[in-house]
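Figure 3 (text version): structure tokens given as input.
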């Protein structure tokens, strides 16, 4: 799916030099590398302030805490996303409410969000899935009209934009993840909180460091969620390459699109008008046959695996049907678009260092699999 060794080979000397600089200073926590990374990320994302934290999941939880989301509150989240989105809501003491997906982009559907609003709704958590934006204009309108916060989970779409504006700069605040496989990945776990609110940024900065306002003085309960200097140094090197890596991803995605344009039985990724997709994942949909919903998709995945080609399913079980949330009463058929997506999506290998030959090999194998599935 992704060859991090190929990427490392192109930047190894810079990475080792950056790490050596940290080792020479022996400053590992809340040091100058993190401060510089926060400034550089704020400039890149168009955010007033950024706060580095230990993971993308922590960034979500801290965003909710900074937004005063807690016990008794409801947070509307997409059903079709990673577990962390709802997990952070539960960890904050709030109640996740699952929305259906837009059939085109698979991101959270604004019309579904509207139908789920109640007096207890405190926030909408919009995930920008796979590298493409959710529909921000109607979500912002809903949030404003009903006086709820809009928080962006931008873990998968750093560098993407909508109407010329970077994702992560639309809502009251946003989060991102630097998990190693991401377009901008650390060499371990790391994440970041983004906002234009000085008050929210200061609160997250305090919460990530045990709630301290000074040495051993805690203004409120916090915990340890600090992006360390080694990871900050690595990310600063990689940030300089991010736009060219995204350009390569987009070129590879365009080649996939061209190869699949006349292949029946496959839907290629769709984007909103006036958007810029960063292609964290190149995710196709293999329509179901109606009897065994995931059978055709799984057949294609198995055929590619037999050719030594990795694929992944992001995500095979929507959140409202996950065992972890069974107590919330989710039932099959409740969110049909999200459920259909779970049976149809298949992510193909995509990373900047791929060659045209590799892309063509994946495309040829997938086309062959679909032809065999039709026999």
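Below: residues designed for each position.
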């Amino acid at each position: 799916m992704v060859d991090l060794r190929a990427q490392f080979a192109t930047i190894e000397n810079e990475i080792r030099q950056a790490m050596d600089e940290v080792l020479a200073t022996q400053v590992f926590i809340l040091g100058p590398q993190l401060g510089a990374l926060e400034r550089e990320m704020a400039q890149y994302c168009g955010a007033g302030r950024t706060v580095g934290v230990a993971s993308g999941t922590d960034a979500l939880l801290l965003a909710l805490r900074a937004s005063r989301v807690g016990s008794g509150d409801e947070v509307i989240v997409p059903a079709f996303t990673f577990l962390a989105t709802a997990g952070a809501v539960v960890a904050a003491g709030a109640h996740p409410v699952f929305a259906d997906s837009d059939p085109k982009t698979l991101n959270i559907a604004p019309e579904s969000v509207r139908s789920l609003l109640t007096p207890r709704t405190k926030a909408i958590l919009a995930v920008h899935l796979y590298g493409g934006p959710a529909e921000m204009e109607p979500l912002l309108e809903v949030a404003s009209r009903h006086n709820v916060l809009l928080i962006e989970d931008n873990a998968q779409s750093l560098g993407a934009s909508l109407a010329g504006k970077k994702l992560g700069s639309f809502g009251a605040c946003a989060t991102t993840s630097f998990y190693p496989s991401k377009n901008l990945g650390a060499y371990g776990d790391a994440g970041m909180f983004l906002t234009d609110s000085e008050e929210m940024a200061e609160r997250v900065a305090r919460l990530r460091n045990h709630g301290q306002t000074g040495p051993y003085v805690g203004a409120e309960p916090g915990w340890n969620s600090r992006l360390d200097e080694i990871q900050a140094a690595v990310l600063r090197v990689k940030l300089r390459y991010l736009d060219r890596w995204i350009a390569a991803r987009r070129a590879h995605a365009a080649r996939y699109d061209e190869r699949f344009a006349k292949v029946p039985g496959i839907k290629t990724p769709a984007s909103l008008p006036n958007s810029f997709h960063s292609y964290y994942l190149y995710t196709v949909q293999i329509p179901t046959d109606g009897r065994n919903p995931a059978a055709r998709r799984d057949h294609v995945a198995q055929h590619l695996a037999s050719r030594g080609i990795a694929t992944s399913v992001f995500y095979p079980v929507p959140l409202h049907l996950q065992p972890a949330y069974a107590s919330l009463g989710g039932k099959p058929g409740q969110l049909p678009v999200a459920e259909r997506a779970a049976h149809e999506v298949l992510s193909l290998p995509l990373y900047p260092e791929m060659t045209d030959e590799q892309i063509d090999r994946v495309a040829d194998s997938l086309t062959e699999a679909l032809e065999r599935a039709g026999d």
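Residues 75 and 96 are 5 Å apart (CA to CA).
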